Write a sequence for this structure.
């Protein structure tokens, strides 16, 4: 069984995934795979550089993520173009990673992805788990983590699926606005449920 773990920016997806991993659930991070497909030598990076020029490249030829993010969050058309280049490549690699983990006999596997619904990756999973935090906390965490101002943090959040819509599409919700102990309690509860659901009937 594959669980799609998602949430808005700075909702704590990786932290929650590590809590599941501590209980024996392996995970694939779509952000890691997204970085893989734009490494030097990859066709996607060549396409990005051809469209936006050298300003989106660092001196060592790697992708300047901050500059690219500024461009695509300011222009929805450019963001759609970028997604059309990267999403199919990301999906192909995710499928391969998930199949490998499933073959290893895990009770269930997590697909950790910020764009579960937006990218159509929800079609690859059996259940959707949304990590939810209040928007004010998202803004505070994003500004601190990514060293952006509140306005840029709000733009990033505004470009994502609205919180209410994400929650409406969830099969399960984990409230990550409280303590780490409370988060781990919810993870343990979900882990028990997923193991039961994943057992052959």
């Amino acid at each position: 069984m594959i669980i799609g773990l998602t949430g808005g920016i700075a909702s704590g997806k990786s932290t929650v995934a590590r809590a599941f991993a501590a209980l024996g659930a392996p995970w694939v991070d779509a952000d890691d795979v997204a970085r893989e497909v734009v490494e030097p030598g990859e066709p996607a990076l060549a396409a990005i550089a051809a469209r936006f020029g050298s300003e989106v490249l660092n001196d060592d030829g790697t992708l300047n993520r901050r500059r690219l993010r500024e461009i695509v969050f300011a222009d929805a058309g450019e963001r759609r173009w970028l997604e059309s280049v990267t999403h199919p490549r990301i999906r192909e690699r995710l499928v391969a990673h998930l199949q490998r983990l499933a073959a290893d006999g895990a009770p269930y596997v997590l697909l950790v992805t910020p764009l579960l619904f937006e990218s159509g990756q929800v079609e690859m999973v059996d259940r959707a788990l949304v990590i939810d935090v209040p928007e004010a906390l998202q803004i505070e965490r994003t500004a601190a983590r990514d060293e952006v101002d509140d306005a840029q943090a709000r733009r990033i959040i505004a470009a994502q699926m609205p919180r209410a819509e994400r929650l409406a599409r969830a099969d399960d919700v984990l409230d990550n606005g409280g303590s780490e102990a409370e988060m781990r309690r919810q993870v343990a509860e979900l882990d028990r449920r997923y193991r039961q659901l994943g057992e052959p009937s």
